[in-house]
């Protein structure tokens, strides 16, 4: 069974595997009290004045304490990140990493002017937005009541958060950054007079792109043969738990901050 789990784990695309594993390990470290959320959240003052550079990354890795909300977010993140990597970014790992950097930098810059302390939720919405725009004909299902096509998914999630009384700033940030990437990468280069503005650095291509595709690679069923979900699998049901997606976005009460 251990060998089977290891094989399945190694079948996950590299970027998706690395990101989701980092998120799980970060949450495990917090649960084991090896670290605290106060050491992870985005704080420009501590980054600039105390050189706590790791906060630029760790604020994207923590999705709250272990529980249903965390599991829901991990499933959501894993699914859409993997479908992007296996779909439109298949064989283009460097471009996928560049999208991560593009989104992370823009969200960090926005975080300098807003009270956002963990940006992982916005990053997930960005991935959902890009996937949904590149798969416009996939049919989605919300609680078995609302049917819609994939491009409406980010907005449905935002509306659901609003109905539950949660802040939608984090959703809007993810949608905004996702749209900027989609526009610059997919729309503007195909317009009259347009050109490709997002160029993946050569160093990323040298590090991540391989000359040949792994013959043992196994994509998700819905992405095989490069096709969108068909038939009964065209329906994606969103499960309860979205109301907890922003619970951990409140400002942490860092005891060290009170004495600085």
TrEMBL record:
GO terms for biological process: ERAD pathway. Functional component of endoplasmic reticulum-associated degradation (ERAD) for misfolded lumenal proteins. May act by forming a channel that allows the retrotranslocation of misfolded proteins into the cytosol where they are ubiquitinated and degraded by the proteasome. SUPFAM superfamilies: Rhomboid-like. Pfam families: DER1 (PF04511). It is a multi-pass membrane protein. Its main location: endoplasmic reticulum. This is Derlin. One of its GO terms (cellular component) is endoplasmic reticulum membrane. Residues 211-260 are annotated as: Disordered. It is found in: Endoplasmic reticulum membrane. Residues 238-260 have a biased composition (Basic and acidic residues). Keywords: Endoplasmic reticulum, Membrane, Transmembrane, Transmembrane helix. Belongs to the derlin family. The chain crosses the membrane at residues 56-78, 98-131, 152-182. It comes from Anguilla anguilla. PANTHER family: DER1-LIKE PROTEIN, DERLIN (PTHR11009). It comes from the Eukaryota.
């Amino acid at each position: 069974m251990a060998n089977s789990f290891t094989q399945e784990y190694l079948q996950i695309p590299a970027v998706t595997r690395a990101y989701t594993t980092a998120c799980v390990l970060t949450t495990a470290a917090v649960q084991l009290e090896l670290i605290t959320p106060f050491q992870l959240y985005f704080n420009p003052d501590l980054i600039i004045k105390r050189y706590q550079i790791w906060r630029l990354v760790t604020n994207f890795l923590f999705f709250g304490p272990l529980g249903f909300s965390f599991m829901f977010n991990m499933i959501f993140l894993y699914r859409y990140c993997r479908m992007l990597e296996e779909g439109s970014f298949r064989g283009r790992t460097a471009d996928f990493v560049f999208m991560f950097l593009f989104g992370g930098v823009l969200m960090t810059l926005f975080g300098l002017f807003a009270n956002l302390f963990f940006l992982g939720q916005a990053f997930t919405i960005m991935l959902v937005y890009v996937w949904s725009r590149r798969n416009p004909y996939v049919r989605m299902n919300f609680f078995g009541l609302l049917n819609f096509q994939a491009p409406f998914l980010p907005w449905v999630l935002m509306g659901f958060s609003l109905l539950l009384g949660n802040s939608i700033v984090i959703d809007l940030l993810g949608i905004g950054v996702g749209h900027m990437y989609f526009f610059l990468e997919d729309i503007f280069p195909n317009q009259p007079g347009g050109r490709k503005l997002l160029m993946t650095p050569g160093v990323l291509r040298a590090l991540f792109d391989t000359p040949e595709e792994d013959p043992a690679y196994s994509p998700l069923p819905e992405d095989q043969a490069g096709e969108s979900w068909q038939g009964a699998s065209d329906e994606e049901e969103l499960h309860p738990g979205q109301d907890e997606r922003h619970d951990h976005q409140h400002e942490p009460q860092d005891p060290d901050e009170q004495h600085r």
